[in-house]
Design brief:
- The chain is α/β, with parallel strands linked by helices.
- It has two domains: 151 residues, Rossmann fold (3-Layer(aba) Sandwich); 149 residues, Rossmann fold (3-Layer(aba) Sandwich), CATH 3.40.50.2300.
- The protein contains 14 helices and twelve strands.
- The strands form two sheets. Strands 7-6-8-9-10-11-12 form a seven-stranded mixed sheet, sandwiched between helices.
């Protein structure tokens, strides 16, 4: 039998297979990765952690699973269209990073499973019915950071004990940022520490906020978590350096970029947990049966190079508590 006859015969046999037999050859699942930020804003570590989580669960990106990335470049108005784009693709599950992304995905589909990562209370922002029994087609990971306000204020005061006024940089359009600022204010009242909030929602407003807080005589700064602040991380770190202003940030990425100190949930760990939940959904678990995961690991990172540049001597006790010291 020559090659042409074999191909013709094989084609005829394959065509004769019943539909059920052909259906047993599963398609590679597609994960929709939806983020309000840009690929450049998110360091490679969290994305690598997401891919690592998939690997741990038996899904190898590019081989046994495909990831469709959609980045909104910090343009809130683009997020709904990107979510709809993924639904029409269609994808097997959507991994939505940030509250805005998760809300857009929820509006775009009530049937496609959605696994979110948010720093907000997912019940309060309408993503799930409850943490233990999410209901609907959403579940995910939540590192509610408002509760960290007291701890962050305590750490900053330990590093800069003689400060009359602490400024708090807040994104007024972001729920996470507003919640964190409220937590700091409550802790400050209990400690008798004076704090003043400065709103900023764009690059120019960040510059203006720094000018105002320096004029007010702030001698330390707390930067709340917000996508816009994350996207302008280098700008914020540079302004702190220019004004010799010690600042505490919400995530490790700031300290890695030259920020003095950061304290918050491990972003890489949160991305990994998100991937593990995505994998469970791909294996057949329903989001409504998967309780929302909350963080158990918080990172304290201190940049000693920045401390030296600011003339700050970091107490040994604080160094001993640090998960990472950058030298």
């Amino acid at each position: 039998m020559n090659r042409r006859q074999f191909i013709t015969l094989f084609g005829g046999v394959a065509a004769a297979w019943p539909p059920t037999a052909r259906a047993q050859q599963p398609a590679i699942p597609v994960i929709g990765f939806l983020s309000i930020r840009t690929a450049d804003d998110v360091s490679s570590d969290p994305v690598d952690a997401f891919r690592q989580g998939l690997n741990e669960a038996g899904y190898v990106p590019g081989r046994s699973v495909t990831i469709e990335y959609r980045w909104a470049a910090n343009e809130v108005n683009r997020v709904p269209a990107l979510a709809t784009e993924l639904v029409r693709r269609p994808v097997s599950v959507i991994a939505a990073f940030g509250t805005i992304s998760a809300q857009a995905a929820k509006r775009a589909s009530s049937t496609i499973p959605i696994v979110f990562l948010t720093a907000d209370d997912p019940v309060a922002v309408g993503l799930v019915d409850s943490l233990n029994r999410p209901g609907g087609n959403l579940t995910g990971v939540s590192f509610v950071s408002a509760m960290l306000g007291a701890k962050r204020l305590e750490l900053l005061r330990a590093l800069v004990p003689k400060t009359d006024l602490i400024a708090v940089l807040v994104d007024p359009k972001n729920a996470e940022s507003r919640n964190q600022s409220r937590g700091v204010q409550e802790a400050a009242r209990a400690l008798g520490q004076q704090v003043v909030l400065f709103n900023a929602g764009s690059a120019s407003e960040i510059d203006a906020a720094f000018a105002s807080l320096i004029e007010r005589g702030a001698s330390a700064l707390l930067v709340s978590g917000s996508p816009i602040f994350g996207s302008r991380r280098d700008q914020i770190v540079a302004l702190c350096a220019r004004h010799s202003l010690p600042a505490l940030h919400s995530t490790r990425e700031y300290s890695a970029a030259g920020g003095l100190i950061s304290y918050g949930a491990s972003i890489s760990d949160a991305y990994r947990h998100t991937a593990l939940y995505v994998a469970r959904v791909l294996k057949g678990d329903r989001p409504s049966d998967l309780p929302v995961v909350q963080p158990t690991r918080f990172e304290l990172v201190i940049n000693l190079n920045t401390a030296k540049a600011l003339g700050i001597e970091v107490p040994d006790k604080l160094l001993a508590l640090a998960d990472e010291v950058i030298e």
